[in-house]
Specification:
globular, two-stranded antiparallel sheet, 7 strands, about 240 residues, single chain
Amino acid sequence: MNDSVTKADSKAVKSKGKKHKQLKITNHYLSKKSRFGGLSIDDVMKKSLPDYMRNGLDIVFVGINPGLAAAFSGKYYTGPGNHFWKCLYLSGLIDKPFTSNDDQKLLDYNIGFTNMVSRTTKGSNDLCKEELIAGSKVLKEKIQLYRPLIVVFNGKISYQVFSGKKDFFFGKQSELVEGTDTHIWVMPSSSARCAQLPRAEDKVPFFTGLKRFCLYLKGVGTCSVDENIDFVFKNNCLQSWTKVK
């Protein structure tokens, strides 16, 4: 009789365990569906982001590709885990706080957006090398068409693919985009996942430096600088800079 009870208890435990496991799977699935307004992840990955580019822009920010949250919302650098919008405001590149919902409004500030690869993925690691190489060619064509003053790579991987360089300092790069007068600026990813710079405040200097570089190129101020020293980051800080008065 004891053996019978033990077997029954064992079956009950197994049955309970299966139900609990299934409940966790169901809840996880429902939470994913709820996160994206009832859409599945596969449906979200069919979405993408528009380019916000036109002639005469001062700055165009280049991301690597849309993530799930950005694709679902249709907005650049969305979500509380991205420091982009806070850094943009704290650096003075914009004069009031904006969110990803305002991304198209940045055209009024002569700032545009695009991505190296248009395909949405769960993470940038899901992109293959061939996609990145093809995307860099498309990006170059866009820059050659619209010719912004500065193209900004938000994250080093996209610039590494675009340039073929492995080692470089953040900030101004020595070359121009081929066939244009467009300058290149590289900064760490604005994502909170950037382990070396986990806070928004850690990333602000790269945005502030970008603003100063843009003003310098436009002839605002009378200070004398060495572009390859004053706009290059080493040890995550700008070299000597005489502020524009």
